[in-house]
Amino acid sequence: MRYLSIKSLLAGLVCFPLISAAEESPNIVVFLVDDMGVMDTSVPFLTDEGGKPVVHPLNTWYQTPNMKRLAKQGVRFSNFYAQSVCSPTRASIMTGQNATRHGTTQFIKPETDNRGEFGPPKWNWKGLTKECVTLPRVLQKNGYRTIHVGKGHFGPFKSIGAEPLNLGFDVNIAGSAIGLPRSYIGTYGKGTSRAVPGLEDYHNSGTFLTDALTIEATKAVDDAVEKKKPFYLYMSHYAVHGPFTPDPRFIEKYLNKGHKKSTAAFAALIEGMDKSLGDLLDHLEKIGEAENTLILFMGDNGTACPGHKGKPSAPLRSQKGSCYEGGTRVPFIAAWAKPSATSAVQKNWPIPAGVIQPQAIGTVMDIFPSVLELTKTPAPKNHTIDGSSLKTLLSGKPDPQREQAFLMHFPHKHRSSYFTSLRLGDWKLIYFYLKENHCELYNLKTDPSESTNLAEKHPKELKRMLGEMKQRLAREDALYPVDATGKELKP
Ligand code: CA
């Protein structure tokens, strides 16, 4: 009899799983900030050699209390990478592929091909299409309500990718081909080529754009919850991209502190974005979804902040559009919106509080596979993913299986032009296609500011890194810059 009762108990478990559907399908928020570098915050991301966070002067200039709150609840990375400009990163988050592979290697100009004089003629300037495998599309098929809020920038004007609804989103609030808003105030640029679409209810209401997007995002979340669907919210702020408009809610405290007005306005944009994060966390708690919602906070490329004596990423070198660390190192925090010891989904995917990963390298390509694993969404067939799941690193542990690498391919013109860089462990190689001395080599462990080029001093390391770079470029089907005759320039 005892045997039978255990058997019937097991049968009962099969029929009535102990974990509810909601707990099996956590909500995801990708909170993406435009042009936010790793130093544009009061949360210290960089560490000393012992892995302890170090507060640099920029961390005392910016005020981001809600990022601090999120960092206290979760895990953050010192070494998290995005591409050096907007569209390549955005397509990487959507596809899990490196820019080399998806081919949108430069930012998309909505009106025209932006390849540059020596850029590869066949680069993907049309961006994402209906045929593309995208994260929202696979989540949509798995029962998720997929919500796009803010900046899209996935394709030029009149292209398929100009409309996020074509790419797997159920809802699009204020997204289009534009990469920046004409204005954060008034009518958000109505009547201009960079008008933010679809926020007519807020025109001339005095609502700052960042705030209008936040309010609309919370409404879309409520709607998903009402429909009893788990949601994927791609919260893609136009902030803190220019125009550097003073946000009246925060600007006062940054004025008359010895900085330019635009530098102060940038800091106020940052704080407005930070308030949005706090408002969203509060709202999730209010509606009872916080324990079941994972927040992935990140920037899309290095800072575009004007001022700070030309060193807006100090101690890192350079800024947005650059091959140096200030161009590609962005903040990354992963945390449950409300940590809970009793939540089944959090037990299955634990994230310790207040932990920093000082050495492990993460990239924007890792979002796609991480979200698939978390949501138990099958990996799409015939779709190569260049990233890998962050689950182990988010549990606070090291992940010895993981490759510590980031390949960044930019065969176009910007602050740094026509380069490929490869970070591999402590080493970083930058290859310039059009310069006579092609290579720069840095050891980021001993020289995080990339001040001393070691290419001549370490020829063996240089050769090894160059070999690795060539292999990876070939593996990802790279398109190379061309010379004046149209001939491909390979490293
Ligand atoms: Ca950007």
Overall 3D shape: globular
Helical content stands at 25-40%
Q: What proportion of the residues form beta strands (DSSP E)? A: 15-25%
- What does the largest sheet look like? 8 strands, mixed
Could you give the distance between the termini?
Answer: 74 Å
**Structural class designation:** alpha/beta
The unreliable regions are 1-20
List the total number of helices: 14
The count of strands amounts to 12
Strand and helix map with partners:
Blueprint: H1 2-15, H2 21-24, E1 27-33, H3 57-61, H4 65-73, E2 75-81, H5 86-95, H6 99-102, H7 135-141, E3 145-150, E4 171-173, H8 209-226, E5 231-237, H9 261-286, E6 293-299, H10 325-328, E7 332-336, H11 344-348, E8 355-363, H12 367-374, H13 391-394, E9 405-410, E10 419-424, E11 427-432, E12 439-443, H14 459-475
Parallel strand pairs: 1-5, 1-6, 2-8, 3-4, 3-5
Antiparallel strand pairs: 2-7, 6-7, 9-10, 10-11, 11-12
The chain binds calcium ion.
Can you give keywords for this protein?
single chain, 8-stranded mixed β-sheet, 14 helices, globular, 491 residues, 4-stranded antiparallel β-sheet, binds calcium ion, alpha/beta, disordered N terminus
